[in-house]
Design brief:
The protein is of the alpha+beta class. The chain contains eight helices and 16 strands. The chain binds zinc ion (ZN).
C-alpha cells in the first residue's frame, strides 16, 4: 500500500532524497500501458517496480518522474515515468525491460491484479494524460512547467497554477419493486444493457445530477437517491459515483439522442445477462465496471429492501 504523502509534494529536497537512493522504484507506462509482471497462465499480475538503473537504459525517452508516494512498510519512494512509444522510439519501447505492457482496462476486466496496484496505474495514467494535455497556460498561452512532484503545473509567464482535473460521473441503478431499469446507448456493443450515467454539471449535487440524467434520458422520476460506492475511472480522468435510486414513476420515455432502448428487468433475467445465458443474447456490464458492482449489490439484497 502506498501513502500518497500529499503534504510533502512541494518539498523538493524530500522528493530528491527519495529519488536519489537505490531503493526508489518506478511504475512505467509505455504510452498508456502499464509495465507488469504476470504468471505464465496470466491468472495473477502485479506492477513491475523498476529501478533507476533499469530506466537508465533509455533516459532520453523517459518523462520526468511523478511522485506517487512512499511504500507504507519501507518508507521508500514510489514514482512513475512514461516512456515514448511513438514510431521513432519503437525499438526502445520493445525492450524486454518494458514488456509486457497492458492497458488498465484489460487488467481490471480480467480481475488478475489487486485494487492497490490498479489504483497506482489509474493515478499514473490520469496524471500523465493531464500533463500531456496541459502544455500551455489557458490564461496567457505561456508555457507551463511541472511542480509538486507532478501534482501541479505552473505558468512560467503569469504564474497561474493548475491542478489535476477530475470529472465526476453519476452512475445509478434505478429499481422498482422487483425490477431494475437498464438502458443501452447506440454505441454500446450489441446486446449490452447498463445503468444510467452522466456527468455532474457545475452547481449540481450528486443526487441532482442523478435525477436530471434519469429524467432526461428515460422520463423516469425518482424518489430517494443513495450514494453506494465510487470508482476511479482514468479514461481519461473521471470519478464514477455509484448510486441506487427508487423509481417514483415507471413509464419510460426515451431521449433518442442518448438512449437506443431501455427496459425493466427482473433479477433472474439480470443474472442470466451476467452469465451470458440470456435467451435474447442480452448482456450486462463486466466486473470492471461500477455498474456491475451496483447490480451485484441489488441482486444480493432481498426484494423487500428494494
Ligand atoms: Zn499564464
Amino acid at each position: 500500500v502506498i501513502d500518497r504523502q500529499s503534504h510533502k509534494r512541494n518539498d523538493t529536497g524530500y522528493l530528491q532524497d527519495l529519488l536519489s537512493v537505490q531503493e526508489a522504484r518506478f511504475l512505467v507506462l509505455a504510452g498508456h500501458r502499464a509495465v507488469i509482471d504476470s504468471d505464465p497462465e496470466r491468472t495473477k499480475a502485479s506492477i513491475r517496480w523498476l529501478t533507476a538503473k533499469d530506466l537508465a537504459a533509455m533516459p532520453s525517452q523517459c518523462s520526468p518522474p511523478l511522485f506517487l508516494g512512499i511504500d507504507e512498510k519501507t518508507g521508500t519512494g514510489r514514482f512513475t515515468v512514461q516512456i515514448d512509444t511513438s514510431p521513432a522510439s519503437k525499438d526502445a519501447a520493445r525492450s524486454s525491460t518494458f514488456r509486457p505492457a497492458v492497458d488498465i482496462r484489460s487488467l481490471a476486466s480480467q480481475g488478475i491484479m489487486t485494487d492497490d496496484d490498479l489504483s497506482q496505474i489509474a493515478t499514473a495514467k490520469a496524471l500523465f494524460h493531464w500533463h500531456n494535455t496541459h502544455v500551455y497556460c489557458t490564461r496567457c498561452a505561456g508555457p507551463m512547467q511541472m511542480a509538486d512532484g507532478g501534482w501541479k503545473r505552473k505558468c512560467r509567464t503569469c504564474e497561474a497554477e493548475v491542478f489535476p482535473r477530475l470529472d465526476p460521473v453519476v452512475v445509478v441503478l434505478i429499481t422498482d419493486k422487483t425490477n431494475c431499469l437498464l438502458a443501452r446507448g447506440a454505441a454500446f456493443p450489441e446486446g449490452l444493457y447498463s445503468t444510467i450515467s452522466g456527468f455532474v454539471e457545475p452547481g449540481e449535487t450528486v443526487s441532482g445530477a442523478v435525477r436530471r440524467e434519469t429524467l432526461e434520458e428515460t422520463g423516469i422520476e425518482l424518489d430517494e437517491v443513495a450514494f453506494v460506492t465510487s470508482q476511479a475511472w482514468p479514461h481519461p480522468h473521471s470519478i464514477m459515483l455509484g448510486c441506487l435510486a427508487k423509481a417514483r414513476t415507471t413509464q419510460i420515455t426515451l431521449d433518442p439522442n442518448e438512449i437506443e432502448a431501455a427496459r425493466w428487468f427482473p433479477r433472474d433475467e439480470v443474472r442470466r445477462m451476467q452469465d451470458n445465458t440470456h435467451a435474447e443474447g442480452l448482456t450486462a456490464p463486466g466486473r470492471e465496471a461500477i455498474a456491475s458492482t451496483l447490480l451485484c449489490h441489488w441482486l444480493e439484497s432481498t426484494a423487500s429492501e428494494c
